[in-house]
Design brief:
By secondary structure, the chain is mostly helical. The chain contains 21 helices and no strands. It is globular.
């Protein structure tokens, strides 16, 4: 390979890395800005007549309901992504997510239009769920299928770090508005809308970057060979249904814990005026922002480490660290100081990152090329429902029913162990060829008990 060709390849790889990390950051900024605002703002502006306890459950239900539409988004994106390519699907999901987020920023509240306000909020959240369901699989495959074989974990970590970056940006924007630009009543009156409207700017940036990236080389090869599946969803569930469920359980163990912060539960628990802990809203947002930075760092470490020791071993290490973080979470949070809450969230984020960074490469290496977009997207979406969709609501219900955070800790320990067991059930296929000419090899022996 001559110097010019090598330089061109490196430039292309850098563009792909930049496009996937910026694209997913924007998508998840849009998704998390809602989840963060739900606990702090929407309970009062859109669900006030329901009261504090029921209003909290309802607003967390709107956070969770979008997850129910993720599989539909994954089905649609997987079908068209496996038939027509990864890039076009990514552009469409970015536009849908950006527009729905911006519209939330101009949505009238309950006092202005009554019941139509929470209904409108729910509809826009559903559109966010559809977009998120289609986004992740496409971004992951663009990164991993462009990557050199020995660097799939590192390249796959780029779309993964877009998630904590999105949370960091969302929490930072809300903290800036709440603490500096529009403090006090101004934040509840108009300041909360600015982070949502800011999505329009991010949408144009992300769209421009994603359109500059070439299609996945694996899909180009599939198209040239005319080996793309005519019915990818049907083929996926006919031949790989158990693999989809097992892979989904891996992510469920991560997302149930991750959405304790990204879904707004910890924010609500630590700032609730009627609760035992009542810390300042801006301080908690800053704690979540710092925890997001920890999540980002260890997501990157996890992806790179998986190229050295394998995806499965990286996950096992991550589950052990996550279990420690889960067991320490509420003992630290219930101390009631901002420093103990920050420490708890950062410790938890280390484990979340270590069970997240290797996921792109791990999932991509599980599924054959012809149904890979459908497989990774649907497994991810189902895992989000099984784990993260209603974990904030479940945690709120457990506390209201038992009057103790111990029940929540038990729930999170169980979800972590489910993720560990599902990981142990899968074979490490680090470095397996991803192209369509190795389809038969890709279909063989995905489970650890198979000879």
């Amino acid at each position: 390979m001559d110097i010019a060709t090598t330089a061109q390849r490196i430039s292309s790889e850098r563009r792909v890395a930049l496009a996937t990390v910026i694209g997913t950051t924007i998508e998840w900024y849009d998704f998390f800005i809602y989840a963060s605002a739900a606990a702090l703002i929407f309970k009062n502006l859109f669900f006030a007549p329901a009261g504090n306890s029921l209003g909290t459950l309802l607003v967390f239900a709107t956070v969770g309901v979008s997850f129910l539409f993720r599989p539909l988004g994954a089905f649609l994106a997987g079908h068209y992504g496996d038939k027509f390519g990864r890039r076009a699907v990514l552009v469409i999901t970015l536009i849908c997510m950006g527009l729905s987020t911006a519209l939330i920023g101009v949505l009238p509240t309950y006092t202005q239009i009554g019941l139509a306000a929470p209904i409108g909020l729910l509809i826009l959240r559903i559109i966010q769920g559809l977009s998120a369901g289609g986004e992740w699989g496409g971004a992951v495959l663009m990164a991993v299928e462009h990557a050199p074989n020995h660097q799939r974990g590192r390249f796959g970590a780029f779309p993964q770090i877009g998630v904590p970056l999105g949370l960091l940006l969302a929490s930072g924007m809300l903290a800036l508005m709440s603490g500096v630009i529009a403090p006090g009543d101004a934040f509840m009156e108009w300041g909360w809308r600015i982070p949502f409207l800011f999505s329009i700017v991010l949408l144009f940036v992300g769209h421009w970057i994603r359109r500059s990236v070439e299609e996945s080389p694996v899909f180009e090869e599939i198209k040239q060979r005319k080996s793309n599946s005519k019915t990818p969803i049907k083929d996926l569930f006919k031949h790989h249904a158990l693999l989809v469920i097992t892979a989904a359980l891996v992510f469920a163990g991560n997302s149930a814990i991750g959405y304790m912060t990204t879904g707004g539960f910890i924010q609500n628990y630590t700032t609730n005026p009627e609760g035992s802990i009542h810390l300042p809203r801006t301080a908690i947002l800053m704690s979540v922002t710092l925890a997001s930075a920890c999540w980002l760092i260890f997501t990157w470490i996890s992806g790179c480490l998986s190229d050295k020791i394998g995806r499965r071993n990286t996950y096992i290490l991550g589950w052990i660290i996550q279990l420690v973080g889960v067991l320490a979470l509420f003992p630290l949070v219930n101390i009631g100081s901002i420093w103990s809450v920050t420490l708890a969230l950062c410790l938890l984020s280390i484990g979340i990152g270590m069970t997240y960074g290797a996921q792109s490469a791990f999932y991509s290496e599980l599924f054959p090329a012809s149904v890979r977009f459908s497989g990774v997207s649907i497994a991810y979406a189902l895992g989000a429902i099984m784990g993260g969709a209603f974990s904030p609501m479940i945690a709120s219900w457990l506390i209201s029913s038992t009057h103790s955070t111990n029940s929540v800790s038990i729930y999170l320990v169980i979800m972590t162990l489910i993720g560990l067991v599902a990981t142990l059930a899968l074979r490490d296929r680090t470095g397996i060829p991803l192209g369509p000419d190795h389809e038969q090899e890709q279909k063989q022996h995905p489970f650890s008990w198979q000879k």
